[in-house]
Amino acid sequence: MDALLGKTEKLTATDWLIDVVVALGAFGFGCLQFTLAVNLLIPDEFMRRLMGIQVMVPTAFSLGAIALTTAPLVVRRRLPWVAFVGCIVAWALLQSQLNGIALSVVGPLVALFTLAASRPRGEAIVAFALLAVLLLVAPPPPDQSRILTQLTLFQNGALGLAAAFAGYALREHQERARAIEERAAAAERTRETEARRRLEAERVSIAREVHDITAHSLSAVSIQAAAAERLVERDPVAAQAAIAEVRSTAKEALEEIRAMIGVLRSGEGPAETAPTEGTDRMADLVGYLEGAGIETSLAMEGYDRARVPAYIDVALFGIAREAATNIVRHAGAARAAIVLAVEDGAVARLVVDDDGRGPGSVAESGHHGLVGMAERVRLLHGTFAATESPWGGFRIAAAVPLASKEETHD
């Protein structure tokens, strides 16, 4: 039934008010056209008399007729077919009751435009056909000259065709706009899904690093404990030193794991157990970049690896590796620089610069690598920035505090 009536979306109070204003505007235009159309069409009074055309003076009946042809416009968006049929039926029945000039067709035109803009193309064609048939078969007003009748018929037909095309064009434009919005929303959802996948992959990578740190620390504890067991009777002092080393190693491992354990809260599943690489492999990155034809400098004089926890060292190397990969794949750079340092004994800082295409190349590549780097630094309570390099290319800067936010107590 809703489809038969042509019901569309539900309207708000503001929508209803707008449609009332449209109906009143159409009524006012119809009244103005009724009184001025003849004078505007045939300004010479002698010609009007020769053609038998009288200047119309509004009467209560003519005003009521115009009101009946425009009143259905109040429901034009809620019930477009009801509004259209109401307007054209009222126009067809009442125009023959006027003398000298045809009743304004503004009401049916607005209703046709609305129907074409809100209903499928087939319905718009049917509506225009109905209007055309009524224009042809509806009796003209009495005492109206043949010439004026034909001119009015041609004018109303042309206006009806224009209204139908305008409504259809508006509908097509709105559908294209909705399709563009839906594609943009789908692309945004895809980007969010990909970002979540990248973040999850980064968490798995960090979990692997926790595994490696734990395995390394427990191996050291096992070796020192075995030594203490052998020395406890014949060399108590050496055994005590071995036990102290066990305690120190265990404490350092606990501190590192505690700093990274938050990563595991949102990630499930087994972690890979491949060996983890640290900044001792920075020379490999330089070789990788130079192998791609990029002149690369590495400055690590201010970096004391012994003072940097293993998990931070591994994270900094992972960020540098990702930055190097982006330079080779996307930047189109001729040179790059990697600076690694410990500042004031409290912050480990990594800066990677290139002279490539700059931030625009990151936008083209989708910048998913940056999401992983930023997430890793965030989890380590550090700061991350991806900006334009002083060389005109791209800069990656990461700063990670060496001390955990929560001090570890004995």
Give an overview in words.
It is a single chain. This protein is an alpha+beta fold and 410 residues long. The protein has 3 domains: 2-185, no CATH class; 192-266, Up-down Bundle (Single alpha-helices involved in coiled-coils or other helix-helix interfaces); 279-401, Histidine kinase-like ATPase, C-terminal domain (Heat Shock Protein 90). The protein has 13 helices and 5 strands. A 5-stranded mixed β-sheet has the order 1-2-3-5-4, with helices on one face. The longest helix is centred in the middle third of the chain and has 86 residues, at 146-231. The protein starts with a helix and ends in a 9-residue tail after the last strand. This is histidine kinase. Residues 170-197 form a coiled coil.
Summed up, what is this model?
It catalyses: ATP + protein L-histidine = ADP + protein N-phospho-L-histidine. By secondary structure, the protein is of the alpha+beta class. The chain has helices at residues 2-5, 13-41, 45-50, 60-70, 80-94, 106-118, 121-137, 146-231, 236-260, 282-291, 310-331, 359-365, 368-379; strands at residues 295-299, 335-343, 347-354, 383-388, 394-401.
